[in-house]
Every structure is written in C-alpha cells, then in structure tokens.
Amino acid sequence: MSGFLLKRFLQAIFVVLVVTLFVSYAIRLSGDPALMLSQGAGSVTEEDLANIRKGLGLERPFLVQYAEFLRGAVVGDFGKSFMGGTPVSKLIADALPATLALALVSLGVSVLVSVPLGIQAAVHKGKGIDQLIRIVSLVGLSFPNFWLAIMLVLLLAITFPILPPSGWDGPASLVMPALTMAIILSATNVRLVRTAMLETLSAQYIMVARAKGLKDRVVLYKHALRNCAIPLITYIGLQFGNLIGGIVVVERVFNWPGLGTLAFEAIASRDYPVLQGTVTVLSVMIVAVNLLVDIAYGLVDPRIRTK
Amino acid sequence: MKPFQLKTLIAASSLALATLLTPSAQAAGTLNVAIHQDPGNWDPIATFLVSWGAVGSQVFDGLIMRTPDMKLVPGLATKWEFLDKNTKLRFTLRTGVKFHNGEPFDAEAVKFTFDRLLGEEGKKGPQQSNYNAIEKVVVVNPTTVDFVMKSPDPVLLTKLAGYGAMIVPPKYITEKGSAYFGANPVGTGPFKFAEYKPKVSLSFTKNADYWGGAPKVDNLNYRFITEPATQAAELQAGRIDVANQIPLAMIDTLKKDPKLAVQSMDGPVALAMRYNTQRGIMKDREVRKALTMAVDRDAIIKTILLGNAKPIASFQGELSFGYDPALKPLPFNPAQAKAMLQKAGVKPGSTIQIDFRGSDSNFREVAQAVASYLQGVGITASLKPYDTNVLLNDIIPSGKTGEMWQNQWGGWTFDYDNTAYSMYYTKQRWNPFDDDAKLNALLHTQRNTWDQAARKTTLQEIGRYVADQALEMPLYSLNTIYGLNKRAKNLALPADGRFRFVDATVE
C-alpha cells in the first residue's frame, strides 16, 4: 500500500507541475499586461510600456519567471497581483474558504439527496416512483447552471425576497449558490446511484442475503450500498473537477467572493500572478481529491488494500 | 392545493424565513453603491481604471475639481494663473486643510505628490504618461506652488482634476510605504477610508472636518459587482442604492418598481466602426462614405439601445470639448449608397469582416444590424467577435483587423484631443492604418497651444476632416445610466461616473 501511495503522490506532484507550467506559459500568450494597465491613458509611449513591464518583472525570460514562481509557490508565496499589488496569497486565503464552503455544501447536499433517491429508483425499477425520479433528474440535467442561478435569484431574491441575491452576508447567502450547484450535481448523481445499485442488486450475494431472511433495509444499506460505493466514490471524486468548473460560473452570477471569481477576473485583466496562484491551488485541490479517492478505495474494499 | 393558496403559503413562509435569514436592515445614514470592478489599489498613481475614478474622488481631492456637470472649479487650489509666456503655472493653495491622518496639506504635499508621480515610483504605473508635460513642481512658499512646463498641454487643467494628480500625504506614504498606502488610502476628501476587502467591498466613514462641508451620510459602502444583471437584482432587492451598470433590457422593469428610479444622461463613451483604410475596397473614400450612408443609426439607437444614446458625426459626444454642433452625420440613404458603390466599381456580394467586442451583448445586436443594413446595399458582412482585451490590445494595435472594427472610447477628459490624438496620429496605438500628414499637423497644432478658442477651432476642423475622409462610421455616444433607490436623495450623479456623495442623504 505505501509503495502505491508514494507512486500516486509523485504522480500528483508531476500533474500539478505540468498544469502550472502550461498555465503560466499560456497566459503569457494572451497578451501584454502593460497594455491592459495603460488602456485608458492618453498617449502611452513604448518607453512608458517598457517601464511598466520592468516594474512587473516581465522583461526577464519566461523560464526565469516560472522558476521564481515555483520557488515562491513552495512556501505559499505567489507574488503580487498586477492589478493593485495585493499579495496573491492573501487574495487566495480570502477566497478559498468561500469556494470550499460552496463546493462541500453543494456536494454534501447532492449526496444526501441523490443516494436515497437513487436507491428508491433502483428498488422500484420500472414503477411509477422510478419513472418520476428519472424524469425529475432529466429535467435537472437539462438546466444550464447560469440559467438556473438567474431563475433562483428572480424567485427567491426578488419575487419573494427571502434571500440575498448576491455576495456574502452570512449563511443565508450560501443557500442559492449551493442549491444551484446541488441541483445540477444531484441530477447526475441520482442516475449514477440508480445504475450502480441495479447492478449490485442483481448480484448473487444479495440474493443470498435475502434468502437468509435479512431485512430489506439491512440488505440495501449494509450489503448493497457498501458494494456500490466504489464506483460512486470514484465518480464523485472525478466530479470534483467538474464541480470546480461549474463553480466559476455560479460564483460569477452570485458575485461569490471565491476562487472562481478571482480566476475569471485574472484572465480578463491578464493578471499573471493571480491566475497562476488560483490555478495552482485549484489543481492541487483536484489532484488531492483524486488521491483521496484512491486511498478511500482501500478503506472501503479490503481487496484493494492487500494488492 | 389551489394556486392562490400555494402563493399565500409561499408568501407567508417567506416572510417568516425573511426574519430569520435576511441580515439586519441597513443602518440609517449608509449609502450603498455597486461598482463593476475592483481596481485593487487605491493609490492614485497605480491604476487607470474608470472604477478607480468612481471611488477616488470620495477620498482624495485634486488641485482642481470637476462639478457633476463637468465644469472645472477650485479644489485644493483656490486660484491659478499662467506666467512666463505659459511656461509656468502658479497655484495658490487652500489653507487650513488637513489629511485624514491629521497631516497638514501644503505646498510640500503638492510637490511630494508630483515628484512621486513623475519619478521612479510613477514609472511603474500607467498614470505618468498623462503628466509628462510637467517638468517639475517648485515650492514658492507654503501656500504657493509653480508647475514648470516641459511642453504645453492644453488638457492639463482637466487632468489635474482627477485620477493620477490627486494630492497624497507625504509623511504617511514615506512612513508606511506605497503598498500599505494602496490598501489604506489617506487623502483630504469628504470620506475617510474605513475598510477594504479586496474583490468584495470598500467602506468609508464621513470626514466631519471636510473643508468643503461635512457629508450628510455617515457611511459610504461600495460593493464590487461585475455582472450587470446581478447589480440590477441587488438594486431590486433594496440592498444597494446606486448601481452603475444596468442592462438596457432591465430599465423598464426597474422603472416600474415604485422604490426605484433610472437616470440616463449624456456620457463620455462614444462608439464608431473604424475602417481599415488599407484593405481592398475600403481604400476608396467614396466606398467608405457609402457604407456609412447605408446604415440607419437612428433606428439602431431607437430599437436596440432603447433611446439611450445620441447619433454622432465625429468620434465624440456633445459634452466633449471640440464637439461641433454644425457637423451633421451623413444621412441614411441606401439608394445613394448603392449608386456610389456601383460607381466605385464594387461588385454586389463583395464581402467584408466586422470585428467587435463579443462580450458586449448590446453591441452584438448593433453589429448584426449594421451587417444587415450593409446587406441591403449588396455588401456581405461577416461578424467576428473577440474578447474585448484581445481586440483592444492585440488585434487593433497590430493592424490585424477586418475591414471594419468596433472602437469604443471613454474620453475621461471630455476633450476631443485625447480621442483624436490616440485614434488618428500616425503610429498611435489605436491607429494601425492611417498616416495623414495634414491630420498629424492639425493634431500637433492643437496640442501645442494654450489658447482654448484656437484649439476648439482646430479640433472642430479635425472632426470635419476625419468625417470628410470617412476614416470611420460614427455610430453614437452612449448614455451613462444609473439605477437608483429612491431612498437616496441629492446624489448629483456625474456623467463620467466619478461620484462625490457630499450632499447625498439616505432616508
């Protein structure tokens, strides 16, 4: 197990390195931040632009800039934002809790909703309740997240003003963004749980368990659920990447002060250090979750532990 | 359950939820304002963003100030005069003014401000280039300073009324450093900095000792909200009092709400479709004129912009110095346009490409309308949307545009010089194509005279000349639109977005 973990850990570091190298290079292709910064200035000369670039440290070769970024990143120092000079680590430290809260709450809500619904659909396969759950999840799948977000704002913040439409004003602000994400996630999760459960329920050991006269509830939640947990954990782990992608959009509509908003604005304003910092943190998060998924395998299924 | 009952139930439960969930009502005397972007730094020399200007005038003062109707009036200087054949500009300073940290405002502070702006510190930022005409600032006595000029800059007084030329406290900056100052600004303005949460909010308390009279509201709170639709939603929810980005489609909805108001006024932003005068059929001036005449700009303003714009004949609006009311836009006349195209030998079905800012949904419709008008005279236009920054900073400066491209210009100085010079002077950043000696000479002449009457004549001549050469299809000057909560009074909304809420009250 430890050899396996070490290998996976080294792989994870490699992935993060490749991602940051690629992103650092790619954003430099997107254009010159000095031009962005002087956009409204009356008559900017080449000399002015060169001064601004020098002030930002952009006159040095790319690999030197990247090496410097890496050296800082190891100790959590991502440099300073081009737009204003705030340390990137401070911007990220401010934004990270908001994104994590949104990701974890929506993932949690989605699991709590989709696991029981998926099981019910599987147990009552082909019956009315199954049909209903499948139709509802299909409707949920068809919503684009930004549209759903805007509809929720119209309904719950304007027509019936019970929730703040955007920003962060305490836990009430979390409801709509998390709901948006949870609805989208649950729609896919329900279908996944249903399929995994159906497969498990047709296995021989379930029939044996039933033949032993075990209660339905024990068969379902103790024997069957544990066995279909692996594909579920894998999927939810992989989904984390998508979840982060969706959060960028949802954060924007709700003006959520998270990493998505930060990354989006950094791209728009060619703020290299902020983008590098946010992408590094996001990729570390996604890679770490995938690593945890691998470890979780071992916990859930003893057969993997001994391999 | 009947729908009616359901609705009542939802309403009742939402009321109950509301008391649980909604944060406590806004404290009396707090004005809440939405701004579309966080410039990230409150140091006047660090940024050029309009969103900085929208906030900067609350905390800082310039030597000169601009009223909401754009007139220049005394600020921290009570008067000014030109000396030594306009090579020197002498300011008499206001006395008894203190910075928010208690430091006195005097001639040394003015000198410090400009030494910083024009020196090494200023080199790192974009503001310096606007003040390069100043050679140095000399202290005559504690209440008098001289600006020694390197070259004439007729727009200097306007520039001293804003942005980079705001007066900053020497002792505070020397002791705390520029980085700290950028996150904890101190000025002489009507509001004192209280708290800054990057990307989230910025709050101020009133400066009770303000030399111009204390503000009426106790607190001023800015929230950074990028999405116009989200700004509108926040306004509808009553959580902000002033929104500076309102989607046109939302105007009617907001107007119907008895608590809200919408104000639409002449603004600084002008739009044009610039022509690539070096490409294909566009080399011919008559062709360019024909294309301009093929498009019904009045109809576009009325139907797409819902009347929130005015047609223009040169690349500036009515508020701009150098605007010529006598210069009329070319009339919409597709028949004549067709004849002109035929005469120029343009074959029906000729294709051109229009580059525009893809993120601007209103302009996307405008571009589509332009394309369909051109179709009407036999020109097939393809639309190519770009990311705004890519179009502005890469495609245009490197001359990689199609036959036509969207150009939108803010002109914060409200002086045609700024626009015309950047757009038409040879090899300027947004002029990849035109190289016209006569135009260069005119631009040079107006920039090197202090005589405003003579300048105005020259600027109007430039406007006429550009129109005659048909270097662009002038479209319209866009209104500045604010969404307001009626509980806020006496807002004195400025056309250029640079608020100063000194007299504002909140019910």
Protein architecture, described:
The complex is a heterodimer of chains A (307) and B (507). Chain A folds into 2 domains: 1-77, no CATH class; 95-269, MetI-like fold. With 307 residues, chain A is mostly helical. Chain A is 79% helix and 0% strand. Chain B is of the alpha+beta class and 507 residues long. Chain B has 3 domains: 27-55 and 189-266 and 480-507, D-Maltodextrin-Binding Protein, domain 2, CATH 3.40.190.10; 61-170, Dipeptide-binding Protein, domain 1 (Alpha-Beta Complex), CATH 3.90.76.10; 270-478, Dipeptide-binding Protein, Domain 3 (Dipeptide-binding Protein, domain 3), CATH 3.10.105.10. In chain B, strand 4 (77-83) and strand 5 (88-93) form a beta hairpin. At the A-B interface, helix 2, helix 3, helix 5, helix 7 and helix 12 of A face helix 1, helix 7, helix 8, helix 14 and helix 15 of B.
Secondary-structure content class of chain A: mainly alpha
> Please, how many helices of chain B?
17
**Helix-strand sequence of chain A:** HHHHHHHHHHHHHH
What is the number of beta strands of chain B?
19
Form type of chain A: globular
